Amino acid sequence: MFKKVHIRLTLLCAGITAIIMITMSLCYLYVSETGLYKNHYQSFQSDINTITTNLEQQSVISMEWLSKMEAQGKYLFYVLDNGIPFLYNQLNEPEENPKRALLLEESLDAYQESGWNSPTNTVSAFTSYHFEFEFTSASCDSKFFGSVIRMGKSSSTLEVIVLSSLESLELQIREQRIRFVLIDITAILLLGIFSWIFTGKLLRPIMENQEKQAQFVASASHELRTPLAVIISATECCKNAPSERQEGFLKTISQESIRMSNLVNDMLTLSGSDSHHFLVQPESIELDTLLINVFEAFEPLAKEKSITLSILLPDYALPLCLADPERIKQVISILLHNAISYTPNHGKIDISLSYCKSHFSIAVRDNGIGISDEEKKRIFDRFYRAEKSRSTKDHFGLGLSIALEIIKAHNGSISVTDAIGGGSIFTVML
Length: 430
Hints:
Number of helices: 10
Distance between the termini: 42 Å
Order of helices and strands: HHEEHHEEEHHEHEEHEEHHEE
């Protein structure tokens, strides 16, 4: 399922960005090509104005001047004197350059179609005008800017057709389009790779969360199955057992029911944390008094295993701590219960409280079996229990998970380190 989601998210992310990028590229190309075309046309008009001025100043148009102008490689000239082709055009026609002749004929046709050669458009010896047009040459398969200059010379009318090929402009536009296509293709490929990695990182926490949920459900089912099996078995045995043995089976049913109730309560606590409905009611409390109360509650349990339980408090007055007293008691109880469970007989457990730089530090130290570095990474995971403690029936592997959620709800931290000489130290910072 996640693979399909990963692919779809990648396509969605890369696709939308690629569409935006291509759209922006097309807009840029449109603006750029329009600008190039406009600049080229304005440059052509400016040159035509200069050519017209030069022609007006010349009493005689020589073939040498026309040759020099064409030698610059920008323009072609076709001159008509009273409608008769100038000698210059006849010298440059068919045999040497047949395409030129065809091009000039096409320009003449375009000129004829424009209507500017009608009798009404007459000029005198003191007037001249020009107009520009664009046409496509079939012989050259290219576009041209054309301009017709009409002026009066003595008793004749001079018509000069000036042509400028747009081949260089089209080549520039074509190269620019190719560059943008290559850039867009490269960018889309890189974008696809980035989107694949990026969406993968986005999905990883969701995948890990689903995996943890699946593990949670499987572990919860396993833990619930055990007391349920015992209860069902004890119930069946109780039906057919004599009255003197029924009390033992009823006691077993009661114990397993309490055990299952504790497990369900723990699971509900964690469920409330996951849904952000974790109930915390902070108030100003005296942490030293709270620790003493928890200490006194666990003293009998420690004595049963001949474990020395001690508490160390500061010898100065502590400020009040803003916290939920019942939740903090629950955390300390979890830590002490674990310490007593995993500390051998005649062991030692110390509780200490300190205050420094507006932070309270509660430490529970034991000299029990200790926790390996590998297990420290997972000890706060739900239903995780170290291999040495899996035989402990009273532990489901949820206690430290609950403690972590409670401390996180208080914006504090909880950590575990190795104690000198063996055992572990759990430290709560508030």
